[in-house]
């Protein structure tokens, strides 16, 4: 048994009062910093589901729009965070990456005990800023895999996260596990709250440490943006006839090139190391295809076959992403729960939070805690 | 005045009996060789619009399915083409590229006077096979820019071509123009018929010679397939976590990698020269982005800005593709009509066929023909 186990479970009120049920709703106010596409959509979803939620945004225009639509929002960051501290709210950093450091400083100053998360598309850089400030015990990183080519409050919409994958980090737990230290109790509470936040808006939670998240999104989110930009340019260089003939394959392949360049740059440049690996693999594949296409007879067999196999695997996996997909149920703090997180990360599995009732102990493989409340 | 003008107009019954009206319907039976996605969809659309249409397919399964759904189809190519000859049908070659040569040989044998077109995604290679056989006076190449990732009769659907761009070639006319020769009368009749075929199924006609068509589709159709294959592979190489996190940008960017590899190979390998140019431009852009991303500070500014500008131009052009977009009206055989085709090719403009009534001559810039019927 890991040394921190019984202590954590006994000390975690959110876990101890949810024995026997899946923790799928959040019992805490939420404070959202940044009301763009992601933050704004989260605000709308949470309010629609009856949660007490309020937000900060730098631009007055978005705040005015949100307020006129019946949401609580303000441009005064200090006032918003002071309210978050008073209400012990879960804070969500939903600004672009360049503003994250300032948000962390403000949280440290005005909400010095609140748990917080983020929804930034690159996680290691946020983690590093959090650790620099010594805030890691109350921070759980997260990244909902949802978006459109549009941005800003006006693009925010209810239902954006429904059935989307939502990555939730466990770097602090993995680090504690590696050094045989107990996981901080507030971290576990925060983890459970952030999972519940994702579940509240209908997302499926997949755990991943920051480095593995960043490596994965370089391949399936940042690289697609880079390739879409390149395809846009090469199509455009074909002139008016090319653009007139462009149909589904070009439209789909360039769609995310319609994203504001500043957002693309923030993602790609922040995640440059992982993206370089993915980009190098891509350039190698294309150069090999170029080589076989210039040969006699011209051939793209290797790439076409490999791409089709890969796409088929992805399609099969996507089909399996529905409600029938197995869910790994975790009891935070129980034996092996960090092993389970690592297993879920490795297999890209969805997790749920579960704490068994004492009378059900025979049906649950995890050892029961020694004390209840 | 070009030397062939009055002769052609006077000798072309299809043009001369449509004075004053847009030629938007086809007054001829249609014979389709190959009942896959494109040929099958064309068969369905034509029959739905009341045309007499029949087809050939090599595989008995598709013929059985089509026949059971009430369409006229047969696996006997000689019999089908003999019927086409008897009915003076317009023949449409809708097989994959590797079967085109055999179709042309069969047409030369069994339907030696019929006009014909094709719907193959690469045009120069078809043109070359046609010219090798001396069939160019009754051939007008064409390529509807419509498709899905699925193929075969089971993927055929009504409405596939609605509002799609449909390229129609004019290589024989351009060659005649260049050498100051008259355009063959049967070629003009064929051209008008193929335009009417495209209009019958709701497509917008854009003229382009085979070489320019192939250069354009390399950029906006074949390159997107190659990039989708590469993106599929690189995402897949990220393992289960990557595929679990993949969302809209990866799904859209890899969609056409779900196309059967044999079809991708047929397109890309047949159009290898033009695709190599597009692929080289892409590799250069990606290598430059790789270079700036590895620098300090990492940057993808140049590519992100250029890609966004290009996509914005494409989106604006797509919006303009609706009914408000200007249409260039041609009177086949009239003064300057080949100039107009070249202008439309250069600007990617949509064309329509129009022959003015004699009494309207004051309102039409084209000179009137000397004789009517």
Kindly describe this structure.
The structure is a homodimer of 373-residue chains. Chain A has 373 residues and is of the alpha/beta class. Chain A folds into 2 domains: 13-208 and 324-362, 3-Layer(aba) Sandwich (Rossmann fold), CATH 3.40.50.720; 213-299, 6-phosphogluconate dehydrogenase C-terminal fold, CATH 1.10.3660. Helices cover 51% and strands 10% of the residues of chain A. Chain A has 16 helices and 10 strands. The first copy, chain A, has helices at 5-11, 13-16, 37-48, 60-68, 77-87, 100-110, 124-132, 171-178, 185-200, 210-236, 239-245, 248-254, 261-270, 272-293, 301-319, 337-347; strands at 30-33, 53-56, 72-74, 90-93, 116-118, 142-144, 165-168, 204-207, 327-330, 350-353. In chain A, the strands form 3 sheets. In chain A, strands 3-2-1-4-5 form a 5-stranded parallel beta sheet, sandwiched between helices. In chain A, helix 3 links the parallel strand 1 and strand 2 (53-56). In chain A, helix 10 (210-236) crosses helix 14. Chains A and B meet through helix 10, helix 11, helix 12, helix 13 and helix 14 of A and helix 10, helix 11, helix 12, helix 13 and helix 14 of B.
